[in-house]
Amino acid sequence: MTSQDALQKTFTDMFGATPRIFRAPGRVNLIGGHLDYNEGWVLPIAIDRSCFVAASVRNDSRLRIHSVQMQETFECHLDDPRPPQHHWSNYVRGVAWALREAGQPIAGADLLISNDVPMGAGLSSSAALEVSTAFALLRVLGLEVDRVQLARICQRAENGYVGMRCGIMDQLVACCGRRAHALLIDCRTLEIEPVPFDESSVAVVVANTMVKHALAASSEYNRRRAECDDAVARIRALRPEVKTLRDVSWREIEQIASTWPDNIRRRARHVTTEMLRVHAAADALRKGDFAELGRLISEAHVSLDIDYEVSSVELNVMVALAKQIPGILGARMTGAGFGGCTMNLICPNDASGFVDKLAKSYEEKTRIKPDVYVCHASDGVEEIV
Ligand code: GLA
Question: Which ligand 1 atom minimizes the distance to the CA of 127?
Answer without folding.
Answer: 8
